[in-house]
Every structure is written in structure tokens, then in C-alpha cells.
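Hi L., both proteins are below.
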Amino acid sequence: MLTTPHHSVAIVGGGQAGLSLSHYLSERSIDHVVFEKHRAMHVWRTQRWDNFCLVTPNWQCRLPGHEYRGSEPHGFMRKDEIIDYLDAFKAAVNAPLREGVAVRRVAPRGQGGFAIDTSDGAFTADQAAAMRHKMWQHAEHQAGLTPAEPEAWAGSPVLNWQALSHDPVFRPLADNESVPDALDAIFEPGGWRRSRPGAQILFSLPEPGPWVLPDDWHMDCGFEQPSWPVPAVKLFAFFGEVGPRGGGTLLLTGTHRLVDRYREGLPAPAGAGRRNWLPFMRHHPWLARLLDGADLPDGGRPLVGAAGEIDGVPVQVVELTGSPGDVVVTHHHVFHTRSPNTATVPRLMLGKEIRRAEEGQ
């Protein structure tokens, strides 16, 4: 996944100092993010010997809002006790923490503020906000929908996004530093087609529960082409927060490898369409059970995240979740499906196909 967050304040480092700053910023309702290259309290876990202990008494441990409350105020905590104390502090602060994200560069911006280059950057939250603004303008014009009046969402007609889908506001989905680098790695530099501005708008409003595993598994193509070399990829991007059960696209990772084997056994090339996708899903019991969500316990929800193996190929049901600016790149032959949105906010995602360049292009 490729992401670039943007916030009023950025804290680099998720140790006790960084989380203390987060505590005070949260008290003042100041928007911020904490970047941690490894894991919060990483140094305490990995760079202290096993019998390490404090040289100050426990009663002096007074992190903001988290004083020592143990039974030995005049004792000296050892490494494991210190880590437990700090983990409890982390949980109490509940910081907007991005673990596993390294900050590579911080540079001043001409218009004020700073641009932060992280290890997982794609398009910015400002650009995502511009996308949301355009989207809601279109939704209000077409159906009177606004983000400020969720009570009016119920019973909304299906929206037509055709007029908006080619708007240049969606250009940052693919026109940024990270996505072209990923495409160069997949297709080789110059090996993919530069697409026109615009994107497929993947929007769904919250709907009454329960959440049920859908059965509309498909590809955005047929079985005409081999999976290798990669003929195309699909970009899935987030321009709003999408959490679990929030309508995020479900992927069947690993199926692109199965598609290639399945295709070789067909008597003739099979095109797109449910009549051809269904036989693929039914050709193995592990896949076939994903078509029976309505008849499974908890609507098949326990299968989300479930992993298996088919003829030596690892497969898994993955629910896409993310924050504004996140981008996921998938092989064009990965089966996927829209999922129900039983959360409280609309699903705001984008899709875009990028194809391999033909010779001479």
C-alpha cells in the first residue's frame, strides 16, 4: 500500500517523548500524526539488556496522565515491568500512530508548512480533500446529498458518476511519485501506458446490516490473456477513511496465479461475464464456499482474512481498508467484489486500470 498523510502537526518518533507530545496535542484537540519507523517503544524492547532496571525509584515515573500506580513506589522497575508500564501509557494516549513508517525527508513548502516524505507516500490528504469536495458537489447537484445531512442518505437513488469520472481532480491517483515507481517495477520503465485523467468512483452509502459476504466475485476482464507477463494492474485508492465493514473492496489474493492455470485447461478462451467467472469460483471447494455467505455463520464474516492453499498457491480473502491517500496495486486477474457498507460513513474509493504498453507505443 502506498500512502502520504498530511496533518497540522507531525511527530517523528513513537517513544515516550513522542507519545507525551501526542497526549498534550489531543488535550487541545490539535490534529496530528505520530510516525514511528519501527514499533512504539522499539528501543526499550530491543536495546536494553534483560536484567536492565531503572536507577530512579518508581514513584518518579510520571508520564502525563500516567503516574506509576504499582505496589512498589520505592522500588526499581526491571525491563519487562518498564515495557508493561510504557505499553499501558501507549494504550491510554491512543495516539494517531503510524508504525513501520520512516520519515525520509522534511522540507519547507513555499505556501507554508512542511512537506514530509515518508516510506509509504502516494497522494496527499489535501488532494484527497479536493476529490471529496468535487464528489459531494456532484452528489448534491444530482440527488441533494451532503456530508452534513446523513439522515437524508437513506433511500438515495443510485448516482451516475460518468460526468465526474474524468475530472482532473482525480489525476493524483496515478500522477505522483510512488505509483509510477511501483508501475515501473511491475512493467519496467516505459512499459506501461500513461492513462488519461480520471478514475472509476467507488462510492457506497451506509446500509442496514447485517454484513453478508457477497457472491459477486469477478475480474474486470475475461480469461483471454495469460497472467504473465502482467497485462494490466488495477489501482484501488482511498479518498476517505474506510474501515472494517465499511464497503472496502474484497480481494482474493493469489487468484491471478490460479487464473493462469485455469485458463490453460479451457477448451477455448472465455470472455468476461458472470457465466464464465462462476465456473472458476466453483472449480475448487475453498473458492466455492465464498459464494454461500448468506448461509454461513455470521454471514460469512469469519472468512474475511481467512487464508488457504489451492494446488500449492496461497490464497486469502482480504478486505481493503485505508486512509485518504492510500493506494493498493493489484494484478488485473485478481478476483474481487464490492462488499456491504454497514459502517456509518460512505465508502470513498477510486479504481483505475493501468495497462502494459504495446510495442511502438
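That was the first. Here is the second:
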Amino acid sequence: MTGLVEEIQRAALDPNVRVSTLLRQAKLAAVKLKLDTVEQWVEAELRGYQDGTSVPDYRKLGGVAVARDAFSRFEPIILGEGMDWMRTAHVGDAVASIEALLDGDKDGELIKRYPTNMIASLLKSNGTQIAERDVCFKGHRSSAYLMRCEISCLIGQLVLSGRSNR
């Protein structure tokens, strides 16, 4: 088991190792060490957090509400009163989906569609005529990279603490 734990620790320090790979390794260690809480957390990260489930703080990313204009550029939307909550995205997607978003973007932006109920609230408060498909959350990819770092650190800590408790 020592070999696997050390391998996970080394991989967590390597920026070229995908978080999804780290999580699968951590799941293996958690199962072997009988760390049920760690195993459940890893599963949620791998499969994504279910709708209605709160996400950890590191999965709450700051950004702006945007809409696609006639020239297919994203322009910020002026938020109505009480709509500041739309500046934070609670990203519950599976880690592999987030990695794919980051791999596909080379402009430093993380663009993600809002859920339909959030778009309806925005359009109602704003009184604007924007096609729902054109309303998105735009954050900087550095936020997602910070999330990656946080997950890597947590994996190292959880696996280490589980090992030391044995």
C-alpha cells in the first residue's frame, strides 16, 4: 500500500497528471484502506455532484453572466437587483467534463451554460429578450485550475491521513 500512496503523492505534484487519473488512484487506495468517506467524495468528484447537492467551496467559481451577441461574441449582462448570485457558478460536473472544457478552450475562459431555471430568473429580472441558448456563465480558466490544485491537495491529505490511521 505504501507504494500506491507514494505514487499518488508524486502524481498529485505533477501538473501533467489529470485530476481524473488522480481520483481513480485515490479511489483504489480508499477502497483498500476502507476509507468510506474518502471513497464517497472521490465518487462525487468522478461522477459529478447530483442536482440539489451542495458542492464544496472549491467548486464555486467567480465570473460574470454573459450573452452571445449578433457577432457571436460574449458580452456581459447587466444583472438586475438581487441577481448577484449569478456571478458564482456552482460547478457540480464530473471532473472529466471540467477537464474537457479546459482542454477545448485556449482563450483563458471557462464558458458554461446556466441551468434553465437560472436563465429564466435572469431574463425575468432583466426584462430583456435574449435567447436562452445564448446565456452563459463566463469565468477565467485559472479558477478551474485552482480547483484542480485544491482537489490534488485534498487527495494527498486524505490518502495520507487514511494511511496514518491504520
